[in-house]
Predict the 3D structure of the following.
Amino acid sequence: MPAYHSSLMSPEIRSVGNMALLPLKTQFKGPARGDGIDSDIIDEAIYYFKANVFFKNYEIKNEADRTLIYVTLYISECLKKLQKCSSRGQGEKEMYTLGITNFPIPGEPGFPLNAMYAKPANKQEDETMRAYLQQIRQETGLRLCDRVFDPQTDKPSKWWVCFVKKQFMNKSLSAPGL
């Protein structure tokens, strides 16, 4: 069975490096506004996460797949933090902190996927990519809390936390040991 790929790529989508700048349904400021869209890359990544996380190899078919890979790896990082949270409120604080924490982007040392992602061409693209990834990180953390925390018990769902030890493509966005 092949991995799931993004269906959101279209000719009018802008790219930075070789990563698609897809519209997002978000309340956070940034370069991606998706007012009036039904589904975005974050919805797609959360929906396909449980299936895609088992794949060690992933064939990139377009720029949107690179965005999907990043969001999938970020979801894994979020789950590592959320498993330790005792309530949804604490989980939301952890996700906010993780979302705004300084992080490497493609082309910088410490970015685990430099072999698959192109470095931004100039300073403006660098700033756009950093802002876009931060916007993705903040929105993904918020939406993940909606999915992961059980409304009755206010605890993380075991059906999400069980994926903490899985590594998509044998990669992680965090440094080893964190």
Observations:
- The chain has a mean pLDDT of 92.
- The helical segments are 41-52, 63-82, 88-100, 123-148, 158-161.
- The two ends are 32 Å apart (CA to CA).
- The first strand starts at residue 14 and ends at 16.
